[in-house]
Structure formats: C-alpha cells, structure tokens
Amino acid sequence: MSSTSNKPVKIIGLITVIAGFLMIAAGGLTWGLVSTQLKAEHIVVSAVTPEEPGRLVGKPVAGPFTAYAQANAINHHALEGANNRTYAQIGADSKALKAKLAAAGASKEEVAKDAGVVALADARNNTMNGSFLRASLFTSVISFGLAALVMGLGVLFILQGFALAKLSAAPVGVTAPVETKA
Length: 182
Known about the structure:
- By secondary structure, the chain is mainly alpha-helical.
- Helices cover 71% and strands 0% of the residues.
- α1 runs antiparallel to α5 (115-169) and α3 (87-103) packs antiparallel against α5.
- The chain starts with 6 loop residues before the first helix and ends in a 13-residue tail after the last helix.
C-alpha cells in the first residue's frame, strides 16, 4: 500500500477554515454596525401599557430583543391611537366618508375641510408612521438574525475545514485484493 496525503482535500479544508473565520468576522461586524446605529438613535423601549409595560421597558434599543419589544410597543400605540384600525382600514373609512359627503352635495373643498375627513387623515398619517417605524425595527431584528446565522455557519465551516484537513493527513493508497480460500 502506498501512503500519500491527499493535497486537494487539505487545500479545500484550509479554504473552508479561512471562509469560516471570514464569516464570523463579517457576522460580528454586521451585528456591531446595526447595534451601533440603533444606539445612535437614542431609542428607549416604551411601555406597552401601564398595567403590563413589558420586561424591557426603559432599556435602550441596541439589540434584537429590545428592537422587537419597541416594535411591539409602537404597534400597540399606533393601533390604540387609531381605534384598533389599520392603515388600510382607515383609508377605506376615509374613502367611504368622502363618497358619502360628495353624494350629499358637498364640494371637493368642503369634503377636504370636513372635520371627519381631516381626523381620518391625521389618524392614517400616524398609523403610517407607526408602520414605517415598526418595519425599520423589524429590519434591524432580521439583520441581527442574519448576522448570528452567518457567525454560526462560520463556526461550522471552521469545524468542517479542520475535519477535512485531518482526513487529508490520513494515508491514501491502493491496496491489493485480498485472496479468499474457497
């Protein structure tokens, strides 16, 4: 039996280890960048309700859990301010009210100045802002998740690369067929 090492497997193992370290660094850098940007906004987790404020109330938004908690608080307050109506529902209410006023003979200017139409427009604006803020915070939560995933995959790549490097050191060769007695 000849004993030679398997150089291509060793090279693939080394490349895999290097890729793993790069993935850990990229994931860590992403995590740090997102966290730094969130901290720079000086956002503090709001209480959802006075009765049940939430465990993270008062903490600065700087990680996935505080970002998620603040997104939930924003959702609660946006819905509360809009009588539990969503952006789309308020839009439908506004459209129906405008049609009703127009059918009653109101001019476009009168419809635009109607207190109900103005109140619905304000509620819809506030709900829209809440939706945008929630979406931004959820983007941060997703970024943290992807960063953690990439770092975890980096660890797996390193382990796999070391396993390949160890396998490449094992002797490789051709063995003669073993004769069996009949």
